[in-house]
Predict the 3D structure of the following.
Amino acid sequence: MPELINRPEYLKQLIENKDVDLVKIITGIRRCGKSSLLDLFHNYLTESGIDSAHIIHMNLESLRYRELSDYLALYDYVKKLIPRDGRTYLIFDELQVVLHWEKAIESFRIDFDVDIYITGSNAYLLSYEFSTLLSGRYVEIRMLPLSYKEFLTFYEFDNIISADEKFQTYLKFGGMPILREYKFNEVRINQALEGIYSTVILRDILQRTNQADQHTLQKIILFLCSNIGSITSPNSIGNVLSNEGDISDRKGKKIAGRTMEKYISLLHSAFIFYPVRRYDVKGKQLLKTLEKNYIIDMGFRNLLLGYRDADRGHILENIVFLELLRRDYSVYIGKVNDNEVDFIAEKPSDKIYIQVTESMQSPETRERELRPLRLINDNYEKLVLSMDRNFINSYDGIKSLNLIDWLLM
C-alpha cells in the first residue's frame, strides 16, 4: 500500500465536522485523493483511541462487497457489524455502486448511534433523491487536486531547482496526487491522466445518460479548455462549434442552447469544470446571463491541448480560482460598469477583489488591471496578483503581491 501523504486542510475539515449530526460527503473528481483522505481520517480515529470495532470502513468497489448491490443488502450487512453500545463511525468509499444507497444512509442515521462519512466521484452523491431524503442533514466537503503548497510537499526537487521552475512544473503537470509515482516522467504522466480523464468521461458522464454524444462532448471540452477565463454562454458555444462544422444534432441542425446547457451541466457534475457566475458590484446582484468556466486541473488541459504558454494569463487565473475555492471562498466575476474584476471572493466576514495578470510592468496593463478596482468604493481589500517581483507592493492602497508568494501564504 502506498505511503499516505497528509492533506491537513481537508483532514481538518473532517475533524471539525466529527460527531456533528450531519452526513459528511466528500466529493471531487476521480483520483484526487478522496480514498486516501478517508484512510487518513481512519488513522486519526484510531490514534484518538476509538476502538477498531467502532470503525466500519468499506470500499464498495471491492469485490469483497459484490453481494451488496442494493440498499437493503447494505443495510443488513452493516447492521450486524454495529456494536450495541457507543458511537460507531461508518466510512463508505464509492458508495454510488449500491442502488438507492441514500435510503440505507438515512436509516443508519435514524436507527443507530453513528457518524457517517462517504465519498463519490460524481453527482450521484448529491442527486435530487439524496438531497430530498436528507433535506439539509449533510455537509459537502469538496476535494480538489493538490494546491501548489501541497505539490511542494508531495514531490522531491533537487536543490538547484528554482522556485519559478517548480511553479512551471506545477503548471505543466497539474496536481493529481497519482502523478507522484511517476517522478515527472512526462510520457507516463500523460498516460495516467488519459486514464483518469477517459474514466470520468465514460463512467461519470456517458454511462449516466444515453442522450449524450461522445463526439459532441469532446468538442465542448476542447472549446472550454481553449477558452478558460473567457465569458461564454451555452448559446455562444453552440453557435461557434456549429458554425465551424464541429457539431450538430442527429438531424444535422445546430445544437440548441438548452441542449448545450445540459452537456455543460454534465461536465460540472463530473467536477471537470467549475462555473463562475457574474456579479454586478454597483447593482449588488448576480447576473443571470454569461459565466466563465475553469478546469479542475491544468494537467488535463495540457493533455488535451498540448502544453503552451500563449494564454498564460488565463492559466494563472485558473490557478487562483481553484486556490480561492480551497480557502473556502465563494467566488464570482465582478462587473463594474463596463469593466471586469477577475474575482470577487467572499466569506461571511470577509471579501476580497482580485485581479490576476502575468505582469504589471507595462503602463497599459497596469492601468487596465487597476481601473476596475479603483471604481469600487467600499473598503474591502483589493489585490493584484502577478508574477512580478519588485519593490512596489501597493498602488494607491491596492495591494500588489507575487502570485507564488500568495499561493504559499
